Automatic annotation (TrEMBL):
Family that this chain belongs to: Belongs to the SOS response-associated peptidase family.
Listed name of the protein: Abasic site processing protein
SUPFAM superfamilies recorded: BB1717-like
InterPro entries: SRAP, SRAP-like
GO biological process: protein-DNA covalent cross-linking repair; proteolysis
Organism encoding this protein: Sphingomonas sanguinis
Amino acid sequence: MCNLYTLRRSMAEVAAHFDASPAAGSNAGDEVYPGYPGLVVRAADGQRLVQSMVWGFPLRLKTMSPTAKPKPVNNIADLRKPMWVGLARKPEWRCLIPLTGFAEAEGAKGAKTRTWFSVKDEPVFAWAGLWRDSAEWGAVYSGVMTDCNAAIRPVHDRMPVLLHRDEHERWLHGSFDDIIALQERCFPDALIVTERTSEPWVKRKAAEAAPSLF
């Protein structure tokens, strides 16, 4: 499960990279946690738009009190599941999540550190996602996951669905079969750059994330 990623590029740089227009008033931090804003690229009126949304679809469990805050479902395990399939079939609800790296926790319990992954020779790359409007947090998004490749397997058995530049349009406008194929294909091991660090896994309090069971 991916619960932390970075986007260490300006809005203008992101917009230029994805051939998109920046939405007025959009902003996000360079470290993104579930329940916090991140930048998203989506199709709108025949062009691409970069805007900020909250990372995670709000989920209210039956066991939660009526006053409790929803949990952000920030990862999508299977696009065919009922929670996602309706959105996934409609291109208007698909999005690209720009990032410069994503982290997984590694190490002994209580002493886990951040291990970072990025894509070789790509200053910004795209994670496949879905978005929608919510009553709780406005526009929200979640990232699609898949089985890990060999480069990530020593740290985690899952990884984000990373897209090559020539796959962006296929994700945004392709058929449902097209995007299922992208979720099921394996991203090349040789393109993954791994950086192990001594950074504690959590440096600041992040919003509580819901399990990636959907």
